[in-house]
Design brief:
123 residues; mainly alpha; three-stranded mixed beta sheet; 3 strands; 11% strand; globular
Length: 123
């Protein structure tokens, strides 16, 4: 698969993601497809900042609640001020998604997650 097609597939995966996890989940430490997609887009941001940034911005506007959280996290890694602005905009979004921290699963809203990020909490 070409790099562009692979990246497009990663963005589609994040676009519809319903779970936010940055590492392996469950007792087996399984890496979710959305986590792999996040890592792929993170690599794109490092290697091709301009095209990666455009994809992240689009995901931030049109993605699922978990997809938007992934996008704001990515943005925060390359531009902390832009990341903070993204979290500010997401603070009014009541979209829900599942979270994983290791084998601990939870549910949250984008509003709650953004507020935690702005307060310096959550990974």
């Amino acid at each position: 698969m070409s790099g562009k097609r692979e990246l497009d597939q990663a963005v589609r995966e994040l676009d519809g993601a319903d779970t936010l996890a940055f590492g392996g989940v469950g007792f087996a430490g399984q890496v979710l497809p959305a986590t792999d997609a996040y890592r792929r887009l993170e690599q794109e941001l490092r290697e091709h900042p301009e095209s990666g940034r455009k994809r992240v911005e689009r995901l931030l506007k049109k993605g699922s609640p978990a997809g938007k959280a992934y996008a704001a996290t990515l943005l925060e890694t390359v531009d902390p001020a832009a990341g903070r602005d993204a979290w500010e905009r997401l603070r009014d979004d009541d979209g829900e998604f599942t979270t994983f921290h290791g084998c601990v699963m939870g549910r949250t809203t984008l509003r709650e997650y953004a507020a935690d990020r702005l307060a310096g909490r959550r990974p």
